[in-house]
Amino acid sequence: MSADFRTYSWEQRYIVQRLPLALRGLITGLINSRPSDHPADYYGALAKSLTRALLFHKIVNPSTFLRNEVWVRYKKIHYIVTNETIWSYFQNTFEPKTSHALCDTKGTIAIDVGANCGQYSLPLSKKFTKVIAIEPNPIALDVLKRNVAKNIASNVEIRPIAILPQEGLALLRRGAFLSTWGVEAKGEVAVTVDGKSLDQILEKFRAIDLLKLDVEGIEHSILLGSRLLNRVSVLCFSLPPPEVRSNVTPLLIRHLISLGFDRIGIPEAEGDSGENAFAMSTCRQSDGVILSYNYFKGYSWY
Questions:
Q1: Among residues 103, 152, 217, 236, which is most buried (max CB within 10 A)?
Q2: Torsion angle of C-alpha atoms 185, 191, 195, 198, degrees rounded to 10
């Protein structure tokens, strides 16, 4: 396929650069997920997207072609697919190692910061006594609420706030996809949301088995400003943007070590890897949240 993708947003270029993963995710989704309603609309939207990719060299999210919202069942969990959601968002196609590791943990308290539509919060609700799902994006928040209600996940507590380096209001800008809204996004559409610091969330709990942090580019600022991460057993976080990663990552590692994390795994992949970093404290872990190194081939450990 020959095409000039320079006019694409970074999110679209990200997908183009990872077409093998995208295709594998598409095939996996066709095999393992089934629409509960409007199957003709569901498969028709997929066909239109593939046609444009093959004939016109255009990468288009199949969800934009849906005429109706469609409920899809994937791994015994129901998810709604709308015009706004990424197609098969529940598969976490571009971070398979992260997904496998997170969805195999279990414990008492899990906090999902940047819960988006619930693609991690819902699987975690099957393994944890309590899940705190934090999501400020009003569109994603609506999808998250509907997914939680459909699955009767009564142990998921949704908090419609942003997590910031410090408490205050934040201007959340639209990204190219529903999952990439953020304070660092460049979209013209924006909403003002309430923000809390991470420690204002952590201070409510004596111990947190799992904390996942994915807030589109400001994770490092939030983590470096936290002093209560020593209550967390397993931390999963998105890496800093590529342009600052080499300078910021050593600071993050030193900060996490100072707070009692003794196993810190950083993906080795060059460029803007989709996989998340992990930090673990063996002395704080229960049996359920100890993660196997088998999940993390291609990681460097500190």
A1: 236
A2: -30
Q: pTM to 2 decimals?
A: 0.88
Going from N- to C-terminal start, the domains of the chain cover 10-89, 95-301
For the domain 95-301, what is the CATH code?
A: 3.40.50.150
State the DSSP string of the chain: -----TTS-HHHHHHHTTHHHHHHHHHHHHHHEEESS-HHHHHHHHHHHHHHHHHH-----GGGG-SS-EEEEETTEEEEE-SSSPTTGGG-TT-HHHHHHHHT--EEEEEEET-TTTTTHHHHHTTEEEEEEE---HHHHHHHHHHHHHTT-TTEEEE--EEESSSEEEEEEP-SSGGG-BTT---S-EEEEEEEEHHHHHTT-S-EEEEEE--SS-HHHHHHT-S-GGGEEEEEEPPPPHHHHHHHHHHHHHHHHHTT--EEEEE--SSS-SSPEEEE-TTT--GGGPPPGGGGTTEEE-
pLDDT tens for each residue of 33-76 = 889 999 999 999 888 887 887 777 677 788 889 999 999 999 99
Name the region of 114 (left: φ>0; alpha: ψ -120 to 50; beta: rest): left
Q: What is the pLDDT of residues 275-293, one digit of tens each?
A: 899 999 988 766 555 566 6
Residues 96 and 297 sit within 8 Å (Cβ to Cβ): no
Phi, psi dihedrals of residue 228, rounded to the nearest 5°: -110, 15
Query: Where is pLDDT greater, at 123 or 1?
Result: 123
